[in-house]
């Protein structure tokens, strides 16, 4: 699957991002990956960079009213925000299609996350190291759901941090991969997805895939 992602993202003829690329009639296996993280970490940008089609997004212009509920510290230049989810697609081969879902980062939209996690193979947690605490909730929810994930530090030009320091700040398990990326770059976004797929392969072949949490009783 990782080689298929690489080929699809690298071949302009196969994935030249047409406005409306028809899905092959033979495609009958949909695979799902979710991109999560704090407010303004680049989730929409990553999905847009790597999708073979023009992504579906639900971005709305930010207003002064939103300043009362959204913490814009460190992202003051941000003018639009996702209010539902982003959606992109990568055709892997004649039968397999990868669907990408980008989750909104603000706390007021966190109630959507549990539904977005349903049926996903794994997740990418995007991190802005200038606002690292904004990613704690994403990691907590993924661990609660037993969803495998990797962490990708998006480059915003901030100070360099040692990998050990980032891991400690996020309290990452040693087996969770930590990579660096530029979400604006198609190649870099592709490499993030490949890193996740390789992590999933390792977990499944070693039998170390985390178990899903027990079903909570409904009163």
Strand order within the widest sheet? Answer: 4-5-1-6-7-8
Task: Give the CA-CA distance, first to last residue.
Answer: 42 Å
H-E order: HEHEEEEHEHEHEH
Overall average residue pLDDT:
79
| Unreliable residue stretches | 74-79, 211-219
Shape: globular
Count structural domains. 1
- Derived structural class: alpha/beta
Count of helix runs = 6
Strand segment tally: 8
Question: What name goes with the CATH superfamily?
Answer: P-loop containing nucleotide triphosphate hydrolases
Largest sheet properties = 6 strands, mixed
Family: Belongs to the GPN-loop GTPase family.
Keywords: GTP-binding, Hydrolase, Nucleotide-binding
InterPro entries: Gliding_Motility_GTPase, Gpn, P-loop_NTPase
Protein name: ATP/GTP-binding protein
